[in-house]
Amino acid sequence: MCARNFHGGATKPFIRNGDISIAEFKEWFPKEFLAQLTNFYSCGNYGDPAFAQDCLEIFQYVRDANPTCRLALHTNGGMRNEEWWSKLAPVIGSVNHSQVVFGIDGFEGTHELYRRNTKFSKVIDNMEAFIKAGGVARVDSLVFKHNQDNVETLEYFLLGKGVQKVNFISTARFYDLDKFAVQDLDGNYEYDLEPATRSEYKKVPNKTLDSLLDADVRYEAISKAIIKPKCMEDQGIYVDPYGNIFSCCLIGSDYLEDPLEETLPIHALRNMTAQNTKDMLKNIGVPNCKDGVLDEDIILWEHMGDYWHGDSKCMTCVKACSKTIFNTTKHIS
């Protein structure tokens, strides 16, 4: 269940199936470009990279071009078969913390409540095959009310399977909701997901974010923001399945997403933020791999820095790369 569908059901209209073939990948990413990378990480905004038809071949191509690059993949692990995962293990390897991160949210019967259309036993079989073939596996596990009492047991179980580390994650997806209705493909109600109630995993909504809907409050907060762009620090880019190149995955999401139904004030703020990004991208442009830009020594966004300073700051950059609005406390600083 992710941003690609309505409450775990029907796929949202803005989603277009995108699958980069190995032929396209070789054309878009010359070996000379790949050779200078330190990190190649595949994690879908709206899908799972392991579903890509040529996923294994693409990772092999990257590894051949750069034997020391960190390779990493984030997946629910519910697709393919054990043989495929065994083949992936030596390709990913372990150099420079290379790994595969599996999303596992409980045991059979609870895992599937959020990880829709997956089967716990198949995920475990695939993960074990990957580990036995020499792969390094980590697990990210979202904590809800329905699985919070199994956290310690799940960690013990997964470490026993050879997982290097289990990272339990508090989810903020509920914000001010006491439950989240899950739907089938026809939009019919199936069941509810509820937020964790254990103190260490409970997310308290930052209600003061609602005040950002006031133009004066928002202007003052954004004006005070000091953006330290992570994309500059990491010297990284995000490429979507259509070849579009962005400074990060958050900007890429803003570019594609349709407006949310505004049932909460936070939804209106989200729509405002996404539109702000779209307006910025109209000015700075969206380069595409199909134009051969990664085969040239050029600046992708000559005017991106204009949106990190002054009165025209990118709201998504403020949210992700400053401590002004979305910080770890419960107030706007």
| Gap from first CA to last CA | 33 Å
Question: Gyration radius, to the nearest Å?
Answer: 21 Å
Return the CATH class of the largest domain: Alpha Beta
What percent of residues are in strands?
5-15%
Task: Work out the helix count.
Answer: 12
Which consecutive residue ranges, at least 5 long each, have pLDDT under 50? 326-333
Instruction: Supply the CATH superfamily name of the largest domain.
Output: Aldolase class I
- Mean pLDDT over the residues: 91
Strand order of the largest sheet: 1-2-3-4-5
- CATH fold assignment of the largest domain: TIM Barrel
- Helix and strand content put the structural class at alpha/beta
What is the ordering of alpha helices and beta strands?
A: HHEHEHEHHEHEEEHHEEHHH
Shape estimate: globular
DSSP E strands, number = 9
Helix residue percentage? 25-40%
Characterize the biggest β-sheet.
5 strands, parallel
Supply the CATH architecture of the largest domain: Alpha-Beta Barrel
How many domains comprise the coordinates? 2
Cofactor: [4Fe-4S] cluster
Protein name: 4Fe4S-binding SPASM domain-containing protein
Keywords: 4Fe-4S, Iron, Iron-sulfur, Metal-binding
Organism: marine metagenome
